[in-house]
Amino acid sequence: MLKSRFLTKWKTITVMLVFIGIGSFFLYVGIANVWDECELIHKGETVGGFIIDAWEDAEEADSGGVVWSHGAIYTYQLPDGRNFEGELHGEGRLKPEFRYLSEPYPVEVTYLPTNPGVSRITKDLPDSILGSLRKQVFPYGFLSALFVFLGFYLLWGLMRELRNPHENTYAS
Predict the structure, then answer these.
(1) CA count, 13 A, side-chain hemisphere, 142
(2) How many CB atoms lie within 10 A of CB 97?
(3) pTM (global) more than 0.70
(4) Which of these, 28, 39, 84, 106, has the minimum number of CB atoms within 10 Å of its CB?
């Protein structure tokens, strides 16, 4: 009986830590993307670049339809001659002009002068910080709050059980 209660508590602690870890990860992803986009909006510089490869994937949806996602690789050159490469991912169909890309497609790329590896295709940047918040922080923030809440709910239940270990047991 004691061994069983001990294992149950450790399982609860493990699940709690996993939930809190997943919630923290979602918060990090949401904030990191927004931070980069905010810096690009305010401090970014624009140069010419090229989309050199593009693809799209189709997956079956639960409802029987198709869910499309796409991606592209782009290159850009800084005024000092250094070359960089970036990658983008999105949902939905690929634009028709990129489906059969036979030669590099010119685009404008915004990059951070202090960290040129951080870049986005200029047309993909939101117009304002609020647009970036809406696109990144709200969905990731919701997921983060959900998982952290579940983790702390398990912690609360465990603490309650540790304070009153015989409250939920039946006499035999």
Answers:
(1) 6
(2) 10
(3) no
(4) 106
C-alpha 107/C-alpha 89 separation (Å) is 16
Alpha carbons 72 and 52: distance in angstroms, whole number: 8
Q: Do residues 88 and 37 lie in contact, with contact meaning Cβ atoms separated by under 8 Å?
A: no
Confidence label for 129 from pLDDT (cuts 50, 70 and 90): low
83-91/105-112 β-pairing: unpaired
- pLDDT reported for residue 172: 44
CA distances in angstroms from 102 to 52, 53, 55, 105, listed in the order given? 9, 9, 13, 9
pLDDT of residue 45: 94
Question: Crossing angle, helix 138-163 and helix 2-43, to 10 degrees?
Answer: 160
What 8-state DSSP symbol labels residue 100? T
The percent of residues above 90 in pLDDT, for the chain, comes to 30
Q: Over pLDDT 70: what percentage of the chain?
A: 81
- For the chain, the C-alpha Rg in angstroms (whole number) is 24
